[in-house]
Amino acid sequence: TWPLAKEVVEWAGVGGDEIQLRVGCASDWLSSGKLDTIDVLLLDHRGTVYQDDLRAAEAYLETDGARVLADNVLLPGAPLFLAHVASGGYDVAIQEVPEFMQPELQDWLVVCARRPGSSAAPTAPRELRQWCAEVDEICWASLQ
Q1: What pTM was computed for the model?
Q2: Is 33 left (phi over 0), alpha (psi -120 to 50) or beta?
Q3: Which terminus of the chain is more exposed, N or C, with fewer CB under 10 A?
């Protein structure tokens, strides 16, 4: 993610004090107290915990134009993240993209903008939490 982020920054022609790249879990960076506002939050790790990082970052996404980009939302899946952003607090756009190294498969890149004054999302249904556990099991098994 770091090399790709640097390429995007260079392509955009920004740098210096205009941008700060942070690699790692957003919730870890936010708890460190080393971040101010977030303009772009890129989620591209374990989809079953995207909603945790997003919840931790929400207070920092208050600027106009702040965006959340989440990759791999369909494959392997981020059902709790989808439930969170679909609860009404976000404007959501889903882009279908070919899966990396498997162009015959379609995945989703989700782009979200938080609506001003939106309230916390309700707890996701039990079925979605179970689905997340199953997604994690499949992912961990594929690493064996």
Answers
A1: 0.76
A2: left
A3: C
Q: Which two tokens stand for residue 30?
A: 């936010």
List per-residue pLDDT tens for the chain, 144 residues long: 677 777 877 877 776 677 777 777 777 877 887 777 888 888 887 778 888 889 888 888 877 778 999 998 887 788 889 988 988 789 999 999 888 778 888 888 999 998 877 776 767 777 877 877 787 787 777 777
CA-CA distance, 105 to 75, in Å (whole number)?
A: 9
Distance between CA 134 and CA 131 in Å, rounded? Answer: 5
What are the structure tokens assigned to 64, written together? Answer: 């106009």
Q: How many residues does this entry show for the chain?
A: 144
Phi and psi torsions of 43, nearest 5°: -110, 115
What is the DSSP secondary-structure string of 27-81? HHHHHHT-----SEEEE-S-GGGHHHHHHHHGGG--STT-EEEE-SIIIII-HHH
Pairwise CA distance, residues 43 & 109, whole Å:
10
Tokens encoding 26: 């957003």
How far apart CA 78 and CA 72 sit, in angstroms, is: 7
